[in-house]
Amino acid sequence: MIDVQHWLSALPPGVIYLIVAGVIGVESMGVPLPGEIVLVSSALLAATGVVEPEWVASAAAFGAIVGDSVGYAIGRRGGRPLLARLGRRFPKHLGPAQLARAEQSFARHGVWAVFFGRFVALLRILAGPLAGALHVPYRRFLLANAAGGLVWAFGTTYLLYSVGRAAEHWLKDISWAGLVLAVLAGLGSTWWLRRRAHRIESTEVAPGVEAAEVLPGNQSSAAVAPGNDPVREH
Predict the structure, then answer these.
(1) Cα–Cα–Cα angle for 131, 132, 138, nearest 5°?
(2) pLDDT tens, residue by residue, 54-100
(3) Is the pLDDT of residue 28 over 70?
């Protein structure tokens, strides 16, 4: 992350905002990219005055909301075959097991999986395409998507910015300590949301039911069981 921050610091502010929006946007479309690392690095740069925090947060929120919406449209058009191709292309991040877990989150929690997914790397990448492939109503998807994107972008940016400014004021002679404190504060800013999201993941399988089985064609049992369309129930 320090290397990313150093690289960004050499760029004009306008370019940094575009990179934040672009990386987060492409990640939200379903391509594994370090969107959160770019946001954290840019927020720390804002604490040193290189960029403005409101523009960093706005760029991140814009990229998240638009990227998820584009991912939704792609998923809606490409359906499960598209998800299967993504899994073959990025097996480490979007393989059958990861897809099955994401599907279970949607099956159990509907659009809330989109909101909390913004704070979990797996769902942050898959939320848009998967919601489209599962035909989640777009209006409900957009509401959860926008809420999650705004809370994640502005919450992360401003907490890191505030702590970073305080660290810079009190720890001018120990810059590395200020950086460590800022990073820890950034992690703490999303702790309870991450904990909630991971609780959602850990309770996906009801007692007495096997963990998600990936059926032929990369389809999970939760997604294809006859008469089971829990996404529409939310």
Answers:
(1) 85
(2) 999 999 999 999 999 999 998 888 877 777 777 777 777 667 777 77
(3) yes
What is the four-CA torsion angle of 165, 171, 174, 180, rounded to 10 degrees?
A: -50
- Please, are residues 153 and 119 in contact by the beta-carbon 8 Å criterion? no
Contact 234/139 with Cβ under 8 angstroms? Answer: no
Distance between CA atoms of 125 and 93, rounded to whole angstroms? 9
Given CA atoms 150, 36, 85, 29 in this order, what sign does their dihedral have? positive
Q: What is the rounded CA–CA span in Å between residue 214 and residue 29?
A: 23
DSSP 119: T
Specify the 3-state DSSP secondary structure of 114.
helix
Partners of 219 in the β-ladder: 215
Amino acid residing at 226: P
Minimum mean pLDDT range among 45-49, 129-133, 140-144, 162-166:
162-166
Across the strands, what pairs with 35? Answer: none
pTM: 0.66
Q: Please, what is the average pLDDT of the chain? A: 76
Phi/psi-derived region of residue 217, left when phi > 0, alpha when psi is between -120 and 50, beta in every other case: left
